[in-house]
Amino acid sequence: MPSDSTLSPDSPDSPDSGPAVPAAPGAPARRSFLRGLAGGVAGGVIAGGAAGAAAGYAYRGAPADPAAAADEVIVDGLLPAVPFHGKYQAGILPAPSRSTMVVSFNATAQGKAELVDLFRTVTDRARFLTAGGPPPVVGINGPPSDSGVLGPTVAPDGLTVTFGVGSTLFDDRYGLASARPRRLVPMTSFPNDDLDPAQCGGDLILQLSAGNADTVVHALRDIAKNTRGGMQANWRIDGFASPARPAGTVPRNMLGFMDGIANPSVTSRAAMDSLVWVEPGTAGEPAWTAHGSYFVVRLIRMFVEFWDRVDVGEQETMIGRRRASGYPLDGDSVYATPDYAADPTGDIVPLTAHIRLANPRTAQSAPSQILRRAYNYDRGLDQVGDLDMGLIFTCFQQDIGRQFAAVQTRLIGEPLVDYISPFGGGYFLALPGVTGPSDYYGRTMLA
Amino acid sequence: MGTRRLRVAAQFAAAGAALAASLAACSSGSSGGGQPANEITVSSSECGGSWRVPGPGWHTFEINNQGTTGAEIDLVDPADGAIYAEVENTGPATVTPMTLDIGSGKYAFLCSFSDYDPQQGAVVTVPGHATGTPAILPITYNDLIPLAKKYVTEEEVAIKVLAPETAALSAAVESGNLATARRDWLTAHLQYETLGDAYGAFGNFDTEIDGRADAVGVNSPQWTGFYRLEYGLWHGQSLKSLAPVAATLNRDVDQLATWWPTQEVTLSDLGRRAHEVIENALEFQLTGHDDYGSGSTLASTVAAIAASRVLLALLHPLLAPRYPGLPSVYTGLDQLQSLLEQERRPSGWWVAESALSVSQRQAIDAACGQVLQELAPIAAITEPRNTLNAF
Questions:
Q1: Sequence-distant (≥ 6) Cβ neighbours of residue B376 within 8 angstroms
Q2: Beta bridge partners of B120
Q3: What's the CA angle centered on A403, arms A278 and B221, to 5 degrees?
Q4: Of B3, B91, B362, which is closest to A348 when you measure between CB atoms?
Q5: Is the CB of residue A140 less than 8 Å from the CB of residue A19?
Q6: Residue B3 falls inside a structural domain
Q7: B102 and B151 both lie in a single domain
Q8: Which of A192, A367, B148, B339 is most solvent-facing, going by the fewest CB within 10 Å?
Q9: In terms of domains, do B183 and B54 share one?
Q10: Which residues pair with A239 in a beta bridge?
Q11: Looking at chain B from residue 342 to 381, which residues have their Cβ under 8 Å from any Cβ of chain A?
């Protein structure tokens, strides 16, 4: 085990630390995840890239429609940079971008100091990758610093890096037990779940989202190579959000239905403060959690062959919406609010319809609303040659028990459960935002 | 475990009522005049008014529900009530598209509003000799009710076969004879699988009798039933420790035998279950998911085929005139069953799914997938629909 003496003393935001010099042959290389390799370059790019980082609500042009991502300015097929610095992490509010990846890690850093270095390194890499720019040139001193997947200059392409922590990080390894977020627990197994432990949980969660799949995979390779000794991946899944078809703002899932219509408005500060962000001074929560957000990931297989063998009328009554238009069965537009009070016996929208159970639209159920962010996944075949595809369900909230778990409890036994099977995921807390060049992920947690 | 039940009692009452007045709505049978071709207004007192189409070809009607309740709207052949197209669960003040290929013939809307008798609108004749979307004769609640009663009776008989089998299983576990216990387990479990328990047909009983460890884990005391017992019998657990599990299973089956005859089958479940039991076998048996040690998932798939055949036999008189693919269903089931039975060993035990060669597995999975495609239309065809009682 290499000692901490190999750690670079550089400050993470030191503007002039320059490209790293590889360790001498034979010297332990395990600590290459530390910021020596990356810090300086990232620091050089921040100044321009993050200049516009202001309020946490300004993102991707902040489309007027809560679910809209259609207004994004795309140049040469690439999205503009999303400001990295802010009170909140920048990847939480935006509508799903075209490509995403969710990766769970366990922390392997030895001791608190190494953990701090890990978080600083992830921060530095995220700062650089989200701003873009030329990677450092290593020359004859070693292999290139960048994978080259995005060409000689890294384009930001709307990349967001959402970083979070799981309950297991708060055991006795790093002395963080007293810092454990009050509402952070291991993910519950619900009655219709079939969870694979190898695809559940983790000390750390990383979600990378961008306009293109190569941007996402480039970011993962960059972060991973710079953090080799500090964290080890547990499970990973790639996802995508489809273009809205035939038009509009809501992408479809692999069941053919529009997904993510009924969300609280991300342009409403009041809604976000009451539903998404951990508010400063929340009873029992450690102060450092303020402006973070509880982050639920659920990997849900969809049995699409079975689903495709069901007539559309039955599909629609299970979901509660028209498949073609996305309208609720009792409504005349995608965003129409179903009037369940006028349909108490479920003649129009059945009482067991997914949308009705998930969001009964009552005063009582309003505080259980989540910010739902679903992506499709598609990754090969199962044992009988059927398609292994489904949903990477993610959501953000203030309190998992009050929100996601309450919603999921209402959904127990819904007719849709025969066509889906939750098999993985976890509960996490997305950390507060990185507020500026000298800040880093989890600084107040690790203080 | 979820259910796919839609309660139909209310609609049944409406459909069963006499509709002497309804034919009065069949007024002006003309293809001229009327509201814009694509807008069809319906309410509890109006079923499309007068309308017209330009001629044969693809057409989308916008069904505008101006009523105060939900409705099912069908486009039918007024001669025999056969349905060309349907929109279900239209809410008040909504507009729902209905798309079909209009052929030559007679068309009328049939409007079934909650709490109202179905009414038929104007008859429109499309001239010429064009072929369009075919109409299918609806199956009614009255068609299905006697079948559902017969199904309950047949299942009751099968449960009465099961009950002594689980009693024998329980006795074998109690007596400490592992070989007998395993054999009795297979006999009883396959009998249970022939009941077609897929997707919650037996409600909570299914969880107690045949639940998986998925949500609770194999060490949970909450896990009971056949699979729990299988896990123990094939994982070296002592028969003494399993005796209470077997006794509970036996008791749960006895309770099922008492409970089942009191149940009413949701009518739309008859057609659905005919394919659901095979879907269930593909998802849980042919994948090996439900192999808790005995390697008998291929046998369970054969049992599922038997369950599907019970339902198909009941529905056959209704399906034969309506579903041209029905013969393919039977040949597909035969083919799948024959492939599976090749994996039955002389000892009475079966080749485990995990021991199949790639070519064996692919042949079975392909046959299963194909017959599922053939089975898929049955649920839609046999869904009970509202009709004028004139038919």
A1: A309, A310, B275
A2: B110
A3: 120
A4: B91
A5: no
A6: no
A7: no
A8: A367
A9: no
A10: A100
A11: 361-362, 365-366, 368-369, 372-373, 375-376, 379-380
Residues of A with Cβ-Cβ distance to B216 under 8 angstroms: 189
Nearest by Cα to A398 from A242, A227, A239, A284: A284
**Domain shared by B69 and B161, yes or no:** no
Assess whether pLDDT exceeds 90 at residue B11.
no
Residue B232 has pLDDT above 90, yes or no: yes
* H-run or E-run covering B124: strand B124-126
Residue B274 C-alpha, separation from nearest chain A C-alpha, in angstroms: 12
User: Are residues B322 and B184 part of one domain?
Assistant: yes
Per-residue pLDDT at B8 exceeds 60: no
Tell me which residue of A252, A347, A239 sits closest to A307, measured CA to CA: A252
Beta carbons of A80 and A156 less than 8 angstroms apart = yes
Smallest Cβ–Cβ distance between B96 and the set A322, A345, A415 belongs to A322
Average pLDDT over residues B255-259: 96
What percent of chain B clears pLDDT 90, i.e. is strictly above it?
Answer: 82
Q: How much is the ipTM here?
A: 0.85
B264: CATH = 1.20.1420.20
Average pLDDT over chain B reads 89
Q: Which of B92, B116, B135 is the last residue of a domain?
A: B135
Q: Are residues B282 and B328 in the same domain?
A: yes
Helix (H, G, I), strand (E, B) or coil at B389: coil
- B193 shares a domain with B47: no
Residues B176 and B272 reside in one and the same domain: yes
Check: CB of residue A3 under 8 Å from CB of residue A34. no
Contact state of A342 with B92 under an 8 Å Cβ cutoff: yes
At residue A138, the pLDDT reads: 87
What's the domain range around B23? 9-135
Answer yes or no: is B386 within a domain.
no
Q: What is the pTM of this model?
A: 0.86
pLDDT digits (tens, 9 = 90+) for B322-363: 999 999 999 999 999 999 999 999 999 999 999 999 999 999
In a domain, B389, yes or no: no
Residues B169, B52 share a domain: no
The two structure tokens encoding residue A47: 């100044």
Instruction: Kindly report the backbone phi and psi dihedral angles of residue A100, in degrees, each rounded to the nearest multiple of 5, phi listed first.
Output: -145, 165
Q: What's chain A's length in residues?
A: 447
Tell how far CA A394 is from the center of its chain: 7
B66/A contact by beta carbon, under 8 A: no
Among B94, B223, B382, most A C-beta atoms within 10 A, so best to mutate, is B94
| Residues 6+ positions from A24 with CB-CB distance below 8 Å | none
Helix (H) or strand (E) holding B243: helix B239-259
Residue B122 included in any domain: yes
* Count of structural domains, chain B: 2
Distance CA B99, CA B344 (A): 49
CATH number, domain containing residue B56:
2.60.40
pLDDT of residue B64: 96
Low-confidence ranges of chain A (pLDDT < 50): 1-71
Residue B391's pLDDT is: 53
Q: A289: closest CA among A397, A145, A445, A165?
A: A445
